[in-house]
Amino acid sequence: MELLRRKGRTTRMLILLRAVLDAPRDQKALSDSLGITPQAASQYLGIMEGEGLMERTRKGPRATVNGVELLHRELLSLKEFVDTSIMGLDIVRSTDAVARGRIHKGDRCALFMEDGLLFAQSGREGPSIGNAEKDAEDGCMVPISGLSGVMELEPGSIWLLKVTPARSGGESFRISIRDLPGPKAGKRGSGTRTAALDMEALALLRRSGLRCDSELPLPEDVRAMLLRGLDVIALGTPHSISGLRSALGNLPRRIGEAEVGPRKGDDGLQNKG
Questions:
Q1: CA geometry: angle at 137 spanning 135 and 143, to 5°?
Q2: Alpha-carbon span 206 to 213, nearest angstrom
Q3: In this structure, which of 33, 54, 219, 243 has its CB flanked by the most CB atoms within 10 Å?
Q4: Number of domains in the chain
């Protein structure tokens, strides 16, 4: 993580953050909030002014639009780093899981993720093993304790499907399930979710008779699905797609893009790879 490796880069981000959140009245107030000397703050401010990230105003040092955009990108990158790191650091001694088949109290069970859910199965080998605390029928929740081992979970992949807005002629366009891109192209796998990012996308899915698993989700909701190992097909106008891509940063291990909209001579699906 480059931001954490370079102290100077971290200090620059903290200066931007304090300038945005605290609106310091002067350079001293800024240096006090950061715990650095006024001389160091002055040096950083001079460099950042030259880069177009900060400016000195009568109300005190302030972040420019470019500075705020950089801060936003860096914080999203840091959040992604923290989220993915925590996934590998969690130490869980007990948990609840969905029983796969009948389980008896005391059974040694393997834990595994499937379709975004955590399952436990008796007599199955796996990287994470625990003991069932009570009897459970297939499909019921069962508490598992004494966990050992590590269960690896790769984030899901995402496809971004740009929808032609109604103002641009896409008000009556329809698609079929065969038009939906993704890792399982044309097939709705159990680990794939369709998300409508805005009203245009939701209307498209409804008039096309296609299922929508997540209506108007926040970027955090899409991120949560990806972190659970689910693949996501996200539909939205170019504006919504751009916002989601920015919010997710580099989290998805694989991103594909396509466009849907009325075009002459074909089915309207433009694959962007």
A1: 50
A2: 12
A3: 54
A4: 3
